[in-house]
Amino acid sequence: MKPAGDELRPIGGGEATAGYPPPEQLIDVRRVDRPDAVVVDVDGAVDVLTAPRLRTVLVAALDSPGERPVVVDLTRVRFFGSPGLQVLAESAREASTRAGFQPLRLAVDSNRPVLRPIELTGFDAILALYSDVEEAVRGTSPG
Predict the structure, then answer these.
(1) CATH code at 29?
(2) According to DSSP H, which parts of 7-139 are helical?
(3) What is the pLDDT of residues 26-67, one digit of tens each?
């Protein structure tokens, strides 16, 4: 019998290994098509195991027809690691190359596990941050 420590954690999919729950238990990512936006709702932890699921949903959202903005709701994320930052940066860059360009919009409210890494890396200068989904859909700051 091989000890659990000899098994590798899957990156980008595959089966869960001993000692690690399947990614679907760590994150819930769903796409909501609205007339005024495509909303990607994220609940849970965004890390090396779950970031590929977020990326898959974001790619599909960016491929949606029309010129609706893509809004990522991160207000219920409890952990946000560097793989999540990479997915957001890549998705924001990809959004900028699409016809009818609309910047990727993030609803982060004051969610410290999400906001802190974004601010520390300087990504707040390149990502459009909003306090809630409705504000992000409108593309306006409060006030």
Answers:
(1) 3.30.750.24
(2) 51-62, 82-96, 112-120, 133-138
(3) 899 999 999 999 999 999 999 999 999 999 999 999 988 778
